[in-house]
Amino acid sequence: MLKEDFVIQTNVRRILIRGNVDYSEITFGTVRGVVYLRGIFRLARIYTEANAESIEFTMKNLQSLEKKIKSIPGVVDIVFEFINWQKEKGQWVSKNLQENG
Amino acid sequence: MGFEEFAGKRLNVKWLPLYQRILAEVEKEIEIHPNYADLQNQFGLLLAMKEEWTGAESHLLKALHLNPRYREAILNLGHLYIEMERWKEAEGIFLSESRKHPKDGFLHHILGTFYLQTGRWRGAGFHLRKAVQYYPYYRDYYKKKRVWQKGKVHLDEKTGSIFRKIHLNYHYAQFHNFIGLYLARKRKATQAIRELQKAAKLQPDQFLFHSNLGTVYYHQGAYQKAIQEYKQALKIDPLYGMGYANLSYVYGLMRRTREALGHMERAVRLNPRYADLHYNLALLYSDRSRYEKAISELKKALRINPNYLFARINLGVLYEDQKKWKEARREYRKVLQITPEDEQLRKRLERIS
Questions:
Q1: CA separation for the pair A12, A69 (Å, rounded)
Q2: CB of B252 within 8 Å of any CB in chain A?
Q3: Which parts of chain A register pLDDT below 50?
Q4: According to the model, what pLDDT value does residue B121 have?
Q5: Which of A67, B3, B12, B157 sits most deeply, having the most CB atoms within 10 A of its CB?
Q6: Which residues pair with B234 in a beta bridge?
Q7: Where are the beta strands (DSSP E) in chain B?
């Protein structure tokens, strides 16, 4: 399997820039086919995640992002280390919502 | 949608629906983020386009109050004063900028054309010569305008009149550039490209317009066109380091890593303080099994940003490859102190412990 980290990195970069993601607060790296994403996951031009509609929309975008990155040739795994979102049992969960009960 | 081209004549934008929509959006964003200098600058530019001079001036001054070194806002304000025929203030702005950046050919070009407009031939000749000296691109440009003849600046009433309304091109070009970027954000790539091409046509000496065009083509997946525009931007300004990085990213997407490497090396030479560029260069070296060079670039990235976790992980992996177990463990442990939940890395550490 191809593991050209720079090629993967440029593909991740393009996916982030092209998507709805506010990538100014996300950093990412590629280590032997493993893609790392850290920071705060927010959608551009959505100023609050307080309502159910925004949360649902953000979740769909996270799923789509994950799918797109997985489809890059050479990617063997993705490690998400977002401050405000985490994956639990295959589902994306907002950490803010968890903390607020 | 389409904005008509009137280089040298006033552009009537007041009734264009897209213009009204953008104006309303920027105004709304300013209500949310009143302290964003770029929004104040954008609003000032938009107001200038419909000749609301006082409002435009007030917003550009706000932008400069928030960020006194904001070059785009400084130049917008200078050109606004030209349009308002407040010559002394315009001259003051451009002279002050030129004193801060004496080798900036573009500023000398602005000052040269400013003095032509105000009939001060000596000053015009001086600054146009300086513009050519620091920015050779202008030699061809002035030749086309017949201001540069037989290796000298040639000025008379006829050539002077060519530049009389040229300041309008600056605002229109900035405006088309802004609209182009707005449309690009809305994913209307074809329309965005049209606007950016207008900007580049009005002000062919601005590398930024070509760079923005390159970026829209890059988003669109038109990589050859992106390369062409990035190269044009670099032809105008060969010291624009991020232009080489952008080229490198496009070549990366095309799997042409040899070209990507050459351009990233140049980007790093021009921007040695950007950790991210060192990181990308390290990936390119590592992919080509040039491990010593990769390690050196990762160390540079970490010196600039000690919290650059991915650089540390990559460094650990390279040490591991070279069987430098102690160094690899040290790097992994440092990362796990910050992200203890990283299972991938924990497994790597366990394997070599």
A1: 6
A2: yes
A3: 1-2, 101
A4: 84
A5: B3
A6: none
A7: 148-149, 152-153
